[in-house]
Amino acid sequence: MRLNHKFTLAYSIISFFVLLIGIGINYVAVNRSAEQATIAVLKNLNTTIVRDIEKNGNYNAYRNNNFVKITVLDTVKKIPDERVENDYRWTNLLKSTLNIVQYTTVHKINNTHYEITTKAPIIKPKDQYITGLAMVFAWTFVFLITLVIVLSQIISIYILDPFQKTLLAISNFQISDNDDVILEKSTTYEFNRLNSFIESTLKRSRRDYLSLKEFSENASHELQTPVAVMQAKIDLLLQTDLTEQQLHDVIKISEELVRLSSVQKSLTLLTKLDHFTITDNEINLSNYLKKSLGRFTDIIDLNDLELTTAIDDDVFVVIDDVLIKILHNNIITNAIRHNIPNGTIKVTLNTDYLLVENTGNPPNIAPEKVFDRFQKGNSKKTSSGIGLSIVKKIIDLYGYSVAYYYENGIHSFKIRFKKA
Predict the structure, then answer these.
(1) CA distances from 123 to 130, 136, 182, 382, 409 (A)
(2) What three-state secondary structure class fits 389?
């Protein structure tokens, strides 16, 4: 979810609860105001009655009034006395609850104590009242949500613009480029802190990358010469008269040197792949496989293997020319190396996937570890254990997927070209 959408959602939730609380407060306040207004009217009525009694000397004018009750008191504990009472009654006529408010005061008029009680009804049509409030709440909420969405989108353009530029600069950053990333200054303190941290991190990453790259190149270059010299010396030694045991030992040393050279080249390639810049280069994989598989014919025949293909025409895949060559060599070499005498290799290609199947003994490692470095499914001495790691690295670079499984004596490597 985008950041501005999260803000919008948060504002909407806050608005909902704030509005809900506001409606509740408003409901209580309106009820209280209605009651206070009624009490104020009754107070004024009691005052008027007291003036009439003082003026006329009696309260005959109010004897038959249903909303006024006047009682002459023999004793009085407290003057002035004042009290408010509420009497809630349901009326079938109005289909509503009446709140009858009674206001009582005690007065001493011409040495006589009078208790004056006046009352007035307050109609509370609760259903209609609550329905009305709910409608007000609903329309207000819709209006606020609309306003929040529109304003959050507009505000995000201005407030989050520096953040968006920072994200764009990071996405365009290439560690192999020489130019430093310069991020724009912002009026927001947090954005400036973030930009400063990112700039320093990218500089440190580039510096570490260049150091690692220099070390890898130097190590690779320095290892090539002694390995070549040792291999040449071994070749010369093999041409001399050696005992059977000496010949056996020298051949073992030669095999280990070949493996050492292979490991050195593979590790160098893996290091380069970590920082490889992919392009949109598209190749006709059908044509490439048909041509490249021919180069393996001799070695396949030499190992008494049978190659069958099911390659659809004109399958185009986005991948680098050099990387597809490495990938193809590794996966076919793996199928040859770990096969069995008189075994088979089958290559299938369509628009969805490339499938390479070969017969072979069951692997000695778990299927999920086949693509890990220095993992060998079989104890072939000439295998460096890095070839399938390189295959996985290349596949990951382009967002494709590769899977391995072993069933009924068949090893299967399936590369899917649809990105996850």
Answers:
(1) 14, 21, 71, 97, 88
(2) helix
Question: Residue 117 is inside which H or E element, if any?
Answer: strand 112-124
**Going residue by residue through the chain (420 aa), what tens digit of pLDDT does each one get?**
777 777 778 877 887 888 788 878 877 887 788 889 999 999 999 999 999 988 888 888 888 888 899 988 887 666 557 888 888 877 777 667 778 899 999 888 888 888 899 999 887 656 566 677 678 777 887 887 788 778 877 887 888 888 888 888 888 887 777 777 788 888 888 888 999 999 889 888 888 888 877 887 777 777 778 888 888 888 888 888 888 888 888 888 888 888 777 777 777 777 777 667 777 888 999 999 998 888 888 888 888 899 999 999 999 999 888 888 888 988 998 899 889 988 999 999 999 999 999 999 888 888 788 888 766 655 555 566 778 888 898 898 888 999 999 998 999 999 998 765
pTM of the model: 0.48
Q: Tell me the torsion sign for CA atoms 364, 369, 371, 373.
A: negative
**Residue pair 84/103 in contact by the 8 Å Cβ criterion:** yes
Nearby residues of 295 by Cβ (< 8 Å), 6 or more positions away: none
Instruction: Report the distance separating Cα 363 and Cα 359, nearest Å.
Output: 11
CA count, 13 A, side-chain hemisphere, 311: 20
